[in-house]
Amino acid sequence: xxxxxxxxxxxxxxxxxxxxxxxxxxxxxxxxPRVLSVRRMILERGNYLFVRREGxxxxxxxxNTRRVEIELTTYCNLRCANCDRAxxxxxxxxxxxxxxxxxxxxxxxxxKWYWWIIVLIGxxxxxxxxxxxxxxxxxxxxxxxxxxxxxLATNGHGRKVQDVLAKVPDWVGIRNSSKEGGxxxxxxxxxxxxxxxxxxxxxxxxxxxxxxxxxxxxxRHGYYPCGAGGGVDRVFGFDIGIKSLSEVRRRxxxxxxxxxxxxxxxxxxxxxxxxxxxxxxxxxxxxISWQHACEKYKQQGSRLSPY
Length: 307
Ligand code: SF4
Ligand code: SF4
Description:
Bound molecules: iron/sulfur cluster
Number of helices: 8
Distance between the termini: 82 Å
Radius of gyration: 25 Å
Structural class: alpha/beta
């Protein structure tokens, strides 16, 4: 009898033990999404704390796939030193076609991609010869997603630009930097970190705050983790623009950051006087790889494939 009781006891113990383990596993699975969302929150929001407190970047910036800056044209009526679309360093009059803007709207609607903000930018976007046709195409997206804010980023310089601005419809917000000339105090965009010993061990795939704050860039050569990165690709000719919105994934953007940020002077830049170490300067500066790339661009122009 005693043996029978002992046997029964050990069987119950084994069963409860198994159930406890099972219960713990189930509980962990239930908590997993919460753990993941906390991790995501720390990654997305914690960066600012780390940057502010430590004065250096510990975590990767996360490309914001709900914002996009569309570079309608690379042509600009100003020549600002250190322009981060390289309009001064490697001038070009290339522009997106209305067909490419149609493609952007079509794939955004088909994929039910809910952009929060679309910024029409350049160069000087109002100098695109089909500027108002483009607005009509973008309006189709605005009708699909009325919560999306559409902005126009302009330098506001000159009569021609101001005439266009006066006719921009109400549903487009205007960000006018009201520049009077090309003498601007900018981050030294054309100082490639790769050319500096200080960044010898840097992991460029971490990106900078611009990809998280301003979001993606779209040029006539495809999508990039940021607009400034599109400028780097145009001048250096890597031809790594993503040609379809369905291929815009975290991993693909991270790969682009790894290739582009080493040539972008915004890397490690936060704001003037902030903890970032990137230089802010008046007047044109170019590190050695930019000097070579601009020289080559001047001779051969852009050879990137279109979006
Ligand atoms: S106005 Fe803007 S786009 Fe034009 S050169 Fe200056 S910074 Fe570049
Ligand atoms: S460093 Fe330049 S290319 Fe890299 S994310 Fe920042 S702005 Fe874009």
